[in-house]
């Protein structure tokens, strides 16, 4: 205690000076208009710089997550021995010395606008017809199925995501070959419904749902996992809820798939229905 009193006694002039300075600063700040405006402006500058740095830091974290997603996707492509592909001409490649015709072409694009909490959601990507895109092209990301392109301009495209009431896609249960239609009831952006599956289908919670090959989608693109199965009363079908793999509240980069044989398939299917 004596040491404390000795400290205050020995530094009394400095402590008194600091107290007087503090009182003077308070009086100036509260009773002088000019000083108030200067302090207010300085405070705004500091707050603005802090907010700017905070936003920049957040953007950096988002960019890091998006880059991680791209790295993951690239690793998956390398695991499929992309290096073994060599160009023969514009339409053919050699895969392990076996000739195959190219069926799908992939384009990378960035999501620049999207919604996930509305009844009619949409996604805008930064690539259009100049980049090779057309309506009715499949959209995926590293997690799975996203949707299809609907409107395309020179530099942008609108994507109809699977979390939209008009979305309809043919899907199947992996390894079990039961198939149905993927729809969305508008309740949760993390769930969709698989309809038109016969009630005798031997399905269990946890089964993986994937795309069925069509003129738009390749076979086997992950969609989600079954989280609930119930029989529909008075019907021969099941009510199936699917937990989606893609998080539509956190989507940055996507891949656009062009089926180069789409026209041929659609033409033969049209002729077959005549």
Task: Provide a compact summary of the structure.
The protein has 274 residues and is α+β, with helices and mostly antiparallel strands. It is 32% helix and 31% strand.
Structure description:
The protein has 274 residues and is of the alpha+beta class. It has a domain at 104-272: Rod shape-determining protein MreC, domain 1 (Thrombin, subunit H). It contains 4 helices and 15 strands. The protein has helices at 2-10, 12-31, 33-79, 262-272; strands at 85-87, 92-95, 98-101, 104-114, 123-125, 138-140, 145-152, 157-161, 169-173, 179-183, 191-195, 208-211, 222-231, 238-244, 253-259. The chain has a 6-stranded antiparallel β-barrel. A 6-stranded antiparallel β-barrel has the order 9-10-11-14-13-12. A hairpin with a 4-residue loop joins strand 7 and strand 8. Helix 2 (12-31) packs across helix 3. It is elongated and about 105 Å long. The chain starts with a helix and ends with a helix.
